[in-house]
């Protein structure tokens, strides 16, 4: 599969197995520079694995991944990642956590402080600069994790269910926040989520994966301009896009009646 000239991320015939368990692919996926793609699919279909492969934390057992023209062979500071659990360094205050990647890059101290303060303000936690992570709520800690990932100005931001552990109201606040901070960065974004509404609210394209081993079964373009606000969720066009993604998800699963038939057949089998 030839690389698209505009692709920031190119997955070429990628597959992955853990031992004998095939969890992903083979699949191809191209993400354009600056595009925001959301991945949805049934639990266990390999979404997190796909993100870890792109991050270079795991090597694929088949195919290859190219980011900005260079094959992925390991982690790179140009690829920021946010996980479901904030994973902040517990012994560093929030400002130092956000500054961490900048210190690693050798950014001078004064500039690092200024950029960290700027990002803390952008995610509305400037007042918590001196707090330790353990004293923050889940939502606040996740704001800090987002600021930490964005402060080094990554070319690619990988978000693995970043709001999955939050209550629904905090989750909506965080979606609005991510939509807002996205205007400050030109990073390409890949978001893994279980939440179809979240995917549609944030992304430019939603990619639907099949049950394990995950393969691309549908792609839905999200035609709404940015910045988006909450009213969008109630618009007929949004509901229509939601219906399209949910239909693709439902179509990719074995139907309930098929499952019932196979269960009944297995119940009838001797032994
Ligand atoms: N390190 C590992 N060793 C063995 N099996 C693994 C490992 N990591 C993941 N798996 C298995 O691979 C499959 C895919 O896992 P993965 O976390 O990528 O799926 P997912 O789509 O992100 O799931 P969920 O939506 O539930 O988070 C699962 O069956 C999981 O148990």
TrEMBL record:
Key words of the record: ATP-binding, Nucleotide-binding, Transport
Domain ABC transporter, chain residue ranges per copy: 9-236
Sections of the chain in a coiled coil: none
Keyword Transcription regulation tagged: no
Region of interest (Disordered), ranges: 250-271
Family matches, as Pfam families: ABC_tran
GO terms of molecular function: ATP binding; ATP hydrolysis activity
Annotated TM spans: none
Positions with biased composition (Basic and acidic residues): 261-271
Stated family: Belongs to the ABC transporter superfamily.
Identification of the protein by name: NitT/TauT family transport system ATP-binding protein
Source taxonomy: Bacteria, Pseudomonadati, Pseudomonadota, Alphaproteobacteria, Rhodospirillales
